[in-house]
Specification:
Elements: H1 9-16, H2 22-29, E1 35-42, E2 45-53, E3 59-67, E4 70-78, H3 81-89
Antiparallel strand pairs: 1-2, 2-3, 3-4
């Protein structure tokens, strides 16, 4: 079963500043070849970072957490060239 996502005006507006919408971000998080690592704890909340690809091949870096059993995207943006190389050569 795919994860349930927690989107609202705040996080959709934030990723829109990076010219992204929820659909490609969800695709990157659903990437079975994605690289996931723990980013850090912020305000007592554990956050993870993922490098994942969309269906069109765009590699994104997504920071997310879990709230009430749902995936809450904190931020997402296009991977840097170094991050893209890391994703492609793993």
């Amino acid at each position: 079963m795919p994860p349930e996502f927690d989107w609202d005006d705040a996080n959709t507006a934030h990723i829109a500043r990076h010219n992204l919408t929820p659909i490609p971000v969800e695709e990157a998080l659903d990437d079975p070849l994605g690289l996931v690592g723990q980013a850090r704890v912020v305000d007592g909340e554990r956050r993870w970072v993922t490098l994942g690809s969309t269906r069109t091949g765009l590699v994104l870096r997504v920071v997310f957490t879990y709230r009430s059993g749902r995936v809450r995207v904190v931020t997402a943006y296009r991977a840097t060239p170094a991050q893209r190389r890391l994703y492609l050569t793993r």
